[in-house]
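Work Package 3 (structural annotation) set out to generate three-dimensional models for the target panel prioritized at the project kickoff. During this period the team completed the workflow that converts sequence records into discrete structure tokens, so that structures can be stored uniformly alongside our sequence database. As a representative example, we reproduce one entry of 328 residues exactly as it appears in the project archive.
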Amino acid sequence: MKILGIETSCDETAAAVVEDGSRIISNIVASQIDIHARYGGVVPEVAARQHLLTIIPVISQTMTEVSWQDINGIAVTFGPGLAGSLLVGVNVAKAIALAKKLPLIGVNHLEAHIYANWLDSSPPGEKDRVKFPCLCLVVSGGHSDLVLMKGHGQFEKLGRTRDDAAGEAFDKAARILGLGYPGGPAIEQASRSGTPCLPLPRAWLKESHDFSFSGLKTALWHLVHKGEISVADAAASFQLAVVDVLVIKTIEAARQLKVEQILLSGGVAANKMLTQHFLANSPVSVLIPPPHLCTDNAAMVAACGYYHLQAGKISGYDLDVVPSLSLG
């Protein structure tokens, strides 16, 4: 069964065809990073207009690998995300589904990130390597969510960010340090020549699975404005503080809940220090998508859509965008 996935939740225009929820046939992503870098962040109206220009060429390029007659459904992100960006993807998906007489499958962007762990990263015959119940950490520019996954489509939210998401914190820290946008890769690059020696705080929020990074960001700002410090050391110290909180709180929750596995997902999951600390310290196995499947893409949407279609979860043509959609 082949699913065409469409993703336009933020500033990547993406389309992909995935077979049986795991094998990627084609996966095209058109990034807008160079456009938004001059502004230091994503400008919603600019993003939406760029999606309009790019969506049809991206889908056309994706479909060069497969015939329309072989497509069994159209999966599209309908939230969370930027309203204008989401509208482009959803309306194009509706038009294709109507014209081709195919099922329309609305997909939660956060759920899709989790399903990146099913894609092309296991040996043949082992696509069911995920063991339920598992603990999912979704960390991106807009989200830091800890979710218990009991089965396909069965989620219970345990914790979330109370302020800045981890990716957002990296963006703001990079701005404070003059490292540019996007912040995550910039902080990671700068930290390689630094030492995590600065006294930055960790918000543990005891008795809660929630996260908080705004205090850490403020502490960095005060250190920078107090006097001369090494940018590399500051980047390394900030990165370690974020990684410590994400890893320790997630592993603590995994022990409490006695889960079988931890699944990482989202753009921040591409951070090498984060993945290394998880692999070195987790008492259970940790699944991590390859970096190009951690950031926004449509293959994860198609993979998630496959399991929705298998369960008979089909959307109507009244599907609307939900910018503040949550998971669990």
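The chain has a mean pLDDT of 95.
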